[in-house]
Design brief:
The protein is α/β, with parallel strands linked by helices and 312 residues long. The chain has a single domain (4-22, 31-311), classed as UDP-N-acetylmuramoyl-L-alanine:D-glutamate ligase (3-Layer(aba) Sandwich), CATH 3.40.1190. It has helices at 41-51, 66-77, 120-125, 127-132, 144-156, 171-175, 190-196, 207-215, 255-268, 273-287, 300-311, and strands at 4-8, 12-19, 31-39, 55-63, 81-88, 94-100, 106-111, 135-139, 160-164, 185-186, 221-225, 231-235, 239-242. It has a six-stranded parallel β-sheet, with helices on both faces. A four-stranded mixed β-sheet has the order 3-2-6-7. A three-stranded antiparallel β-sheet has the order 11-12-13, sandwiched between helices. The model has no long low-confidence stretch (mean pLDDT 93).
């Protein structure tokens, strides 16, 4: 039987433009290759987890529009359970505006739209999958209060919980809606870790120290992703680092979601945190060799073969 992963999350249609450089305030640049594709951190995590072999359930809200219908078609194609995804006529399906440059960097602005409607009634309706999954994973494109409520419910049922705190908020925003000890694994990147701690974006505190500060706030484990530099892992009894898989990166968009999904699947399967993080780093690295999010996400065999090749 496949492991069960429940994603408490978001969907947003990605509206993407490529350009030579990311514009600064007041600057206009010429773009190219406009396209609309699948996006949203919750949806990305769900797709990647499913491709790695998990039985995935998506809990969220979409609009009653063509973009929402496109999402449901994607979920059907990926064999993801959407019986707990609510269709609302109040708000449209979410959108994300993405600018990508030639160096594989990006900036993203998200309008959550229907995602903002995810609330306690949706958690009540999904109580069974929140309490029976092997792992419940969430991110912050959904209302923080709902996310913390969902993680609290899963934790109370003995389910392992993972939170990717993105888009990042100050830790006080999270603690206003719950206790951080309901989070088994917190997976920020370096920038998100600084935001959580209220530090400037250019703060030079070492990553492992950021992780220790976050750990002291309540999570059972902190895994800070560092792109091509791998990931740092800190728990009450362990500090470790896993290396990234060497890749030729062309697009980093969605790599954090890929990492969180792979980590959640591996933990659901019973892997140790270090082994799960190593698997997640390889999965995320491989996605950076391709454009977009959903088209870049690899299956289990591809990831395992790449890891075996690197180890040989």
């Amino acid at each position: 039987m496949p492991t069960e992963v429940t994603v408490l999350g978001s969907y947003a249609t990605a509206i993407v433009v490529d350009t030579d450089l990311i514009p600064v305030t007041g600057q206009t640049v010429i773009g190219r290759n406009y396209r609309e594709t699948f996006g949203g951190k919750g949806s990305d995590i769900a797709v990647q987890a499913a491709r790695l072999g998990a039985a995935v359930t998506f809990v969220g809200v979409i609009g009653d529009d063509q973009r929402g219908r496109d999402f449901l078609e994607l979920m059907s194609t990926e064999a993801i359970d959407v019986s707990h995804c609510r269709i609302s006529t109040e708000r449209p399906t979410g959108v994300g505006l993405i600018i990508k440059d030639r160096a594989a960097h990006n900036v993203i602005v998200v309008d959550p739209a229907a995602n903002d409607l995810l609330g306690s009634q949706d958690l009540e309706a999904a109580a069974d999958v929140l309490s029976s999954a092997d792992v419940v994973v969430a991110q912050l494109e959904s209302p923080v209060a709902t996310v913390m409520d969902g993680l609290t419910r899963a934790h109370a049922a003995g389910v392992r919980t993972v939170l990717n705190p993105a888009p990042a908020v100050a830790v006080e925003t999270l603690t206003a809606h719950g206790r951080l000890d309901v989070i088994d694994v917190l997976t920020p990147n370096e920038t998100e870790a600084r935001v959580l701690l209220g530090l400037p974006a250019d703060d030079q505190t070492p990553t492992d120290e950021l992780a220790r500060r976050l750990l002291a706030l309540g999570p059972q484990a902190v895994v800070i992703t560092r792109g091509e530099d791998g990931a740092d892992i800190v728990t009450a009894t362990q500090q470790a680092h896993v290396e990234a898989l060497p890749v030729k990166a062309i697009d980093s968009n969605g790599a954090g979601d890929s990492f969180t999904a792979a980590l959640s699947v591996a933990l659901a399967e019973g892997q140790t945190l270090v082994d799960a993080a190593s698997f997640a780093a390889a999965t995320a690295g491989l996605c950076c060799e391709h454009w977009e999010t959903v088209p870049s996400y690899q299956n289990r065999a591809t990831v395992e073969n790449a890891m075996k090749k690197e180890a040989s």
